[in-house]
Amino acid sequence: MSERRAVNLWSERATGYRESETHASGADLDLLVEWCDPSEGVKVLDVATGGGHVARRLRAEGCEVVTLDLAPGMQPDVVGQAEDLPFDDGSFDVVVSRIAPHHFADIRAAIAEMARVSESLVVIEDTLFSNERHEQAERLRDPSHVRSYTEDEWRAFLLEAGLEPELVEHLEKRHPLEEWLARTGCTGSDAERVKELLADRMTNDGSAWTDTKILLRARKSQR
Ligand SMILES: C[S@@+](CC[C@H](N)C(=O)[O-])C[C@H]1O[C@@H](n2cnc3c(N)ncnc32)[C@H](O)[C@@H]1O
Q1: 125 lines ligand 1 (CB under 6 A)
Q2: Minimum-distance ligand 1 atom for the alpha carbon of 105
Q3: Superfamily covering domain 3-130+143-174+212-220
Q4: Distance, CA of 33 to CA of 207 (rounded, Å)
Q5: Is 99 touching ligand 1 by the criterion CB < 6 Å?
Q6: Above 90 in pLDDT, residue 3?
Q7: Whole-prediction pTM value?
Q8: What mean pLDDT do residues 8-27 have?
Q9: Do the strands 78-79 and 92-98 form a parallel or antiparallel pair, or are they unpaired?
């Protein structure tokens, strides 16, 4: 997908992501916030902030948060690309990114940039790779989905960027199906095919499906 198309697409989706209950809350968000070691004056960069849910929670803990997103419609503090962060080396105590890296065109560049602008911690949550059928479903539901990664791939990305993984957790997350499809405008035969592809992760009544999130906390290696 072209950069311009992605910017427009995400700007159009802003209200849906701001109002999404699954993004605004959950055990995954609670744990991610805890792993940022939030306290008064801690400087945090929230990369691909979307509806701003991580930033809201961290600000409530006293952190000084800067939000970045490629889509102006998401109303971030800074419009920019994860792969080319407009900040000096070590500008933040913590750099966090939640449920977004599977959209990044160049995951290695993005992780390298997150490591560069962090003084200490990088904290990530994303959808864990499960199998190619689920990847197909994700791409059909949302053409901006690039790829989800396995835990081994995540560990390798972090290590390549000079980050030592110190905490890793997998959490199940439930998605009310119709809301999840509506958020990206997936309807008709595409929606039916997505349901078929996700059948093994669907509730018995077909009203929701569950994926697995991976959370990682990594620290800059001592050189
Ligand atoms: C699912 S939303 C993020 C959810 C949000 N972090 C949360 O916790 O609710 C994905 C976001 O990633 C942004 N995005 C996608 N690719 C990006 C990139 N390369 N650089 C910066 N932002 C990007 C989109 O504009 C969108 O706002």
Answers
A1: no
A2: 19
A3: Vaccinia Virus protein VP39 (3.40.50.150)
A4: 29
A5: yes
A6: no
A7: 0.97
A8: 94
A9: unpaired
